[in-house]
Amino acid sequence: MSAVIDDDHSHGDDHAHGPAKGLMRWVLTTNHKDIGTMYLWFSFIMFLLGGSFAMVIRAELFQPGLQIVEPAFFNQMTTMHGLIMVFGAVMPAFVGLANWMIPLMIGAPDMALPRMNNFSFWLLPAAFLLLVSTLFSPGGGPNFGWTFYAPLSTTYAPASVTFFIFAIHLMGISSIMGAINVIATILNLRAPGMTLMKMPLFVWTWLITAFLLIAVMPVLAGVVTMMLMDIHFGTSFFSAAGGGDPVLFQHVFWFFGHPEVYIMILPAFGAVSSIIPAFSRKPLFGYTSMVYATGAIAFLSFIVWAHHMFVVGIPVVGELFFMYATMLIAVPTGVKVFNWVSTMWEGALTFETPMLFAIAFVILFTIGGFSGLMLAIAPADFQYHDTYFVVAHFHYVLVPGAIFGIFASAYYWLPKWTGHMYDETLGKLHFWLSFVGMNLAFFPMHFVGLAGMPRRIPDYNLQFADFNMVSSIGAFMFGATQIFFLFIVIKTIRGGVPAPAKPWDGAEGLEWSVPSPAPYHTFQTPPEVK
Amino acid sequence: MNGLPLKRLVRRLLLLTVVMFAFGFALVPIYDVMCRAFGINGKTGGQYEGSQVSDPTRTVRVQFMSTNASDMVWDFYSTADQIEVNPGAVNQMVFVAHNPTDKPMSAQAIPSITPAEAAAYFHKTECFCFTQQVLQPGERIEMPVRFIVDRDLPGSVRHLTLAYTLFDITARHPPVAQVATEGVQRAR
């Protein structure tokens, strides 16, 4: 992806200059493409790191009994896997895509706040260095699950929890600055004629995601600050002995946490809404309803948080409210799935790698959505709560949802980023290995979960042995396949068939009007949008 | 191109960030108020000042539970497991606490009512949970709780449980006072 370097200034702008040379180019850059590239690489490194933690988990769960790691270390692995995948892999990947593509899609020369853009990226390596360093500290790293429920994360936490809190603060600041930048860019830098309802859906979903980020990341910062105060300054936000309440933690956390899951999926919705029309050679079906559905999902995400905590003891009326509100989310989500399918209906479909990932996204995300509906049924949730069924559910919405959305986007826009076509055969191989590996890994988790296997435990009953072995084999397959993806990307950067400005004949959007690779500076004169 | 000038837009977004950070903290009192107003989570109110007329036609069984939080070493129990009460009448139950260690310690009891919807109908006119307990080494005290079950208690509730969890708060509130049950008045 570093092949965006544009040495020949073919766009003919006198003031334009290429990137600086050497390392300082990356440290000091304010160019949205450079920063997007750094976000994407950072996210990929974190994806491999978080993935390697998942490999440790699956290796331990390959057979019943304790074989490879200590239970205490297993807990750190489940915690760090979740934290790194959520905050280090998925979120920065979408910010990277936003940095690269939003200015190109709306005809803007750069992001609205380029210096802040640089700062919000460089906070991330600091945050994750802080977080990962806790694994080497006495007492170990965070071991309380990525949801860090108090008092597990306060009274009973390892000493390194303070590092974890500061890492969350840094990530939060980075996300908020990124979100402010996205909103400012979209609202202020659109090319003439690019009205809101002409924006590509990726831009729309990111605009809504950015508002979600600004609304909930400060609440996350607040909840970890309360933890910090409980641990070090003698307050009792979450300590019953001092008049606080541990259940309060769960309410505040999930007030952040539920919108957070939509933060991780809405940009993927947007990307897929560009990719499916491109390879169906039809305009997106129901653009307006897509926009309103996204807004509806974002609104509903604020009033469903307690469905994560049906078992803590909330009144029946509350359980009913949160149950029905949660099920209501299926309506706008159903609108989206319907629109994607209708877009493909009677289209002239071809199945290049981005389209394969996008179709798998629609099918598998829907499976994850249905298991979510099952979990939303409050009385049934008492059985499913904290079992592998929940693990299966959120991996089905995050892996073939968020991650496949990112893969689809990467393949779709790699020609624009690198100026080369990726190897289609290798891309399809990557897809099929990921598809099979992912389903092998996560589908059996539904069965062991329904049969009662609890999550976050390094050992299990013998009856779950076969399904767990299948899960582990699938996970190893999926994990190894991602090294192969790294190879495909590097191969595409280093060479390949030169990509035309618009490599996909059905693709729409301003990003395809600039040459491939996209010059270092684009749209310094705003394009006219009809 | 359109909308607010960049500076004003960014200022508003930053303001929104600050407001949401404050909202995170505002959730703490909001949560307490909601719990008390709707009697959720089994949280009981503070000291009850009113009085009611006993309803001899109805009896409700009140069960008592006493639990030590982790690390708490005191003996802590009620003098009876359960009593039958008439709604509206004032009742008393005595709890006993004993500090078996050789150090003075302070403790805080946190009450909870099950079923949670009955919490709003359970009034404590006097409770050791309103204060903190300081016990000298080996000291044993009897701690009364006086309560009224409201006449408006829904008919579906035939028995309810008053559970206390006793927390060791010696580290937080060093036991300086000699007099037991003297401490910070807290609204629970």
Automatic annotation (TrEMBL), chain A:
Pfam families: COX1
Documented EC number(s): 7.1.1.9
Domain Cytochrome oxidase subunit I profile: 26-530
InterPro entries, per the entry: Cyt_c_oxase-like_su1_dom, Cyt_c_oxase-like_su1_sf, Cyt_C_Oxase_1, Cyt_c_Oxase_su1_BS, Cyt_c_oxase_su1_dom, Cyt_c_oxidase_su1_bac
Membrane topology according to the record: Multi-pass membrane protein
PROSITE patterns registered for this protein in UniProt: COX1 (PS50855), COX1_CUB (PS00077)
Broadest EC class assigned to this enzyme: translocase
One Gene Ontology biological process: electron transport coupled proton transport
Molecular functions per Gene Ontology: cytochrome-c oxidase activity; heme binding; metal ion binding; oxidoreductase activity
Catalytic reaction(s) noted: 4 Fe(II)-[cytochrome c] + O2 + 8 H(+)(in) = 4 Fe(III)-[cytochrome c] + 2 H2O + 4 H(+)(out)
Subcellular location: Cell membrane; Membrane
Pathway(s) served: Energy metabolism; oxidative phosphorylation
GO terms under cellular component: plasma membrane; respiratory chain complex IV
Annotated transmembrane regions: 38-59, 79-100, 121-141, 161-189, 201-229, 261-279, 291-314, 320-341, 353-378, 390-414, 426-447, 467-490
Source organism superkingdom: Bacteria
Keywords: Cell membrane, Copper, Electron transport, Heme, Iron, Membrane, Metal-binding, Oxidoreductase, Respiratory chain, Translocase, Transmembrane, Transmembrane helix, Transport
Family: Belongs to the heme-copper respiratory oxidase family.
Entry function: Cytochrome c oxidase is the component of the respiratory chain that catalyzes the reduction of oxygen to water. Subunits 1-3 form the functional core of the enzyme complex. CO I is the catalytic subunit of the enzyme. Electrons originating in cytochrome c are transferred via the copper A center of subunit 2 and heme A of subunit 1 to the bimetallic center formed by heme A3 and copper B.
Name of this protein: Cytochrome c oxidase subunit 1
Organism: Pseudomonas reidholzensis
Taxonomic path: Bacteria, Pseudomonadati, Pseudomonadota, Gammaproteobacteria, Pseudomonadales
UniProtKB/TrEMBL annotation, chain B:
Bilayer topology term: Single-pass type II membrane protein
Entry GO terms, CC: plasma membrane
InterPro entries: CtaG/Cox11_dom_sf (IPR023471), Cyt_c_oxidase_assmbl_CtaG (IPR007533)
Primary localisation category: membrane
Amino-acid biosynthesis keyword on record: no
Segments crossing the lipid bilayer: 12-31
Biological role stated in the UniProt entry: Exerts its effect at some terminal stage of cytochrome c oxidase synthesis, probably by being involved in the insertion of the copper B into subunit I.
Compartment(s) of residence: Cell inner membrane
Source organism, top-level taxon: Bacteria
One Gene Ontology molecular-function label: copper ion binding
UniProt keyword list: Copper, Membrane, Signal-anchor, Transmembrane, Transmembrane helix
Name of the protein: Cytochrome c oxidase assembly protein CtaG
A Pfam short name: CtaG_Cox11
Higher taxonomy: Bacteria, Pseudomonadati, Pseudomonadota, Gammaproteobacteria, Pseudomonadales
Matches recorded under NCBIfam families: PRK05089.1 (NF003465)
Keyword field contains Protein transport: no
Family affiliation: Belongs to the COX11/CtaG family.
Organism for this UniProt entry: Pseudomonas reidholzensis
